[in-house]
Design a protein that fits this description.
With 173 residues, the protein is an alpha/beta fold. It has a single domain, classed as 3-Layer(aba) Sandwich (Rossmann fold). It is 21% helix and 31% strand. It has helices spanning 7-24, 40-47, 100-110, and strands at 2-5, 30-36, 54-63, 74-76, 88-96, 116-125, 137-142, 147-148, 164-166. Helix 1 (7-24) packs across helix 2 (40-47). The protein starts with a strand and ends in a 7-residue tail after the last strand. It binds inosinic acid (IMP) and magnesium ion (MG).
Length: 173
């Protein structure tokens, strides 16, 4: 596997995003929703750089990848229990690829009457996007390729690596 982004580059980027969020949500409170499992590492690093009153929640999404429906089929496995009506909400995940899971989850949260819902992903992977949406905040943008580490897995492996790697054919076991 080849390192694409090392731990120092990631830490620098996460701090920058945290500073941007601290500025943009100045004077308000933020509810940050992490997507398990992939978003766990980015989420825990990011919230330490948001210098505002922050509350957190986590959800799990499962995708059936149904290509017949425009948004695919996304199921919410452990929805947040907290009320978000009137609140600013930020969704945090590892990567936006096709965009199907995040577009569906965003719509779901919007139905609960929040003041705003935005999306923040560590990686914005652009070439396979099937929905007209981009993350509002992202760390790094790549066109394509399968990457692992810093929360991202291949068949549940590699999630805990502190760097982000490009997975090559020989790494798929
Ligand atoms: P979506 O296609 O944007 O809905 O992304 C769904 C999920 O696919 C992401 O949350 C990741 O779990 C996974 N995924 C997409 N691209 C990659 C990758 O390059 N490495 C690891 N997981 C990925
Ligand atoms: Mg994921």
């Amino acid at each position: 596997m080849k390192v694409l982004f090392n731990a120092r580059e990631i830490a620098q980027k996460v701090q920058e995003i945290g500073e941007t969020l601290t500025r943009e949500y100045d004077g308000t409170e933020l509810f940050v929703v992490g997507i398990l499992k992939g978003g766990f590492m980015f989420m825990s690093d990011l919230v330490r750089h948001i210098h505002l009153p922050v509350k957190i929640g986590f959800v799990r999404l499962s995708s059936y990848g149904n290509s017949d429906s425009p948004q695919g089929d996304v199921r919410i496995l452990n929805d947040i229990q907290e009320a978000i009506k009137g609140k600013h909400v930020l969704i945090v995940d590892d990567i936006m690829d096709t965009g199907q899971s995040l577009v569906a989850f965003k719509r779901h949260l919007e139905s609960k009457g929040p003041r705003s819902v935005k999306i923040c992903t560590m990686i914005d992977k652009t070439e396979r996007r099937t929905v007209p949406m981009e993350p509002d905040y992202y760390g790094f943008r790549i066109p394509e390729g399968f990457i692992v580490g810093y929360g991202l897995d291949y068949a549940e492996d590699y999630r805990t690596l502190p760097e982000i790697y490009v997975l090559e054919p020989d790494d798929r076991r």
